[in-house]
Amino acid sequence: KMSQKQRVLVYLKEGKAITSLDAFYELGITRISAVIYNLKQDGHVIDKENKTVLNRFGEPCTVASWTLPCS
Fold it and tell me: Of 1, 28, 25, 34, which Cα lies nearest the Cα of 66?
């Protein structure tokens, strides 16, 4: 059984960016920012980018997207 940290790390190592919505639908994780925080505490370097998207009402909002830096 993989931990949430392991699931997120595998996801990021596949070259994918992850948002809270991705984490919920793809990995069943509801508090992705906490998992990212714990991965950073473990020494992993993870980049964060804030993106503006439209919500279901067509209104702009900002979401965080995390990736591993390019090597």
Answer: 34
Q: Which of 29, 54, 1, 63 is nearest to 12 (CA)?
A: 29
Q: List, for residues 2-18, the tens digit of each pLDDT value.
A: 999 999 999 999 999 99
Q: Is 10 helix (H, G, I), strand (E, B) or coil?
A: helix
For tokens 């950073």, what's the residue?
40
Contacts 24+ apart (CB under 8 A), 31-38: 32/8, 32/66, 33/64, 35/4, 35/5, 35/8, 36/8, 36/66, 38/5
Calpha distance 31→35 (Å, rounded): 7
